[in-house]
């Protein structure tokens, strides 16, 4: 399995996973709309930097959990459950950012670091996705090179999505904040992967 393939998988699922409105990407949109481009780009870079260790931690937890016999014997079932639950969670209404997220109006890199650290949802996200990709035979992280290519892809995927939000803030913001379709695309992708895993489990 090539480094490029695992990098692209990490990039793709990180990119779509960064779409649902939340504290980090709405903050980037706000900065872009305020024409604080440099601050927004520094914020996006900080988010990507934190994504790297959080994805790595998620993969390490996945190694630990899937090394137990019970998990190995029911891997396909667990993958189906995880993808379905993640899909449902992504389809639930998201809360507007408030409090701490709104008080760092003029900060960039440090603001991104702090908010990313306080938003560790990437860990369970990458635990679930890594387990799913492995059980489907789509990924192999058996060497340090493959592992870090995958994790690096997750960081670059998050950076790419946030950078696009900065560059196209005026055009993208109304759709991201108001369009139901844009908000539910990641959840629908997750549910699709879940249904695929259920089909493989039963058939």
Describe the 3D structure.
α2 (23-33) packs antiparallel against α3 and α3 runs antiparallel to α9 (144-167). It is built from 11 helices and no strands. It has helices at 3-17, 23-33, 37-65, 69-73, 75-91, 100-103, 109-117, 122-135, 144-167, 169-178, 180-202. Helix content is 79%, strand content 0%. The chain has 203 residues and is mainly alpha-helical. The chain has one domain (3-202).
How would you summarize the topology of this molecule?
Blueprint: H1 3-17, H2 23-33, H3 37-65, H4 69-73, H5 75-91, H6 100-103, H7 109-117, H8 122-135, H9 144-167, H10 169-178, H11 180-202
Helix pairs in contact: 1-9, 2-3, 2-9, 2-10, 3-7, 3-8, 3-9, 5-8, 5-11, 9-10
Search tags:
203 residues; mainly alpha; 79% helix
Short description:
With 203 residues, the chain is mostly helical.
Largest sheet: none
Low-confidence stretches: none
Supply the number of structural domains. Answer: 1
| Helix share, percent | over 70%
The total of beta strands comes to 0
The overall pLDDT, averaged over residues, is 77
The separation of the N and C termini measures 27 Å
Percent strand equals under 5%
Class computed from helices, strands and strand pairing? mainly alpha
Radius of gyration in whole Å, from Cα? 17 Å
Order of helices and strands: HHHHHHHHHHH
